């Protein structure tokens, strides 16, 4: 899907960008840039410069393929890259898993509140931390 979206948008999904996105999907949890660098170095048997991976992540974020979990300085693939939207993330403090949720009501409410304050939103980061259902079920207490 990413390749076809890039084609439609007139941007290029380079090999490195594709590899970073594939790794994020494969890992399945918020992952930092340096963990991605290590995985890419193992995968390609060659050193990867940090700026190269950061540029790939910047591109993937600009296209809506990846979001950054600010509280963990980590990245996750977006569930719906074909739609431009802000995401709400629920992050488990025990296992580190994250779940992306779209909530247009919350987006509208934030936009209304910002407008009422004369505030122009340039970026929204909404993260909720707690314990996921799996970890809650596994804890006998």
Offer a concise description of the structure.
With 141 residues, this protein is α+β, with helices and mostly antiparallel strands. The protein has helices at 2-9, 15-27, 33-44, 50-62, 104-117, 133-138; strands at residues 66-69, 74-77, 88-92, 98-101, 126-130.
List the helices and strands and how they pair.
Blueprint: H1 2-9, H2 15-27, H3 33-44, H4 50-62, E1 66-69, E2 74-77, E3 88-92, E4 98-101, H5 104-117, E5 126-130, H6 133-138
Order of strands, widest sheet: 4-3-5
Give the overall pLDDT as a whole number: 90
- Class derived from helix and strand content: alpha+beta
What overall form do the CA principal axes indicate? globular
Q: Over all CA atoms, what is the radius of gyration?
A: 17 Å
Protein described:
- By secondary structure, this protein is α+β, with helices and mostly antiparallel strands.
- The protein folds into 2 domains: 1-79, Arc Repressor Mutant, subunit A (Orthogonal Bundle); 85-141, Ferric-uptake regulator, C-terminal dimerisarion domain (Dna Ligase, domain 1).
- The chain has 6 helices and 5 strands; from the N terminus they run ααααββββαβα.
- The protein has helices spanning 2-9, 15-27, 33-44, 50-62, 104-117, 133-138, and strands at 66-69, 74-77, 88-92, 98-101, 126-130.
- It has a 3-stranded mixed beta sheet, with no helix packed on it. Strands 1-2 form a two-stranded antiparallel ribbon.
- The radius of gyration is 17 Å and the shape is globular.
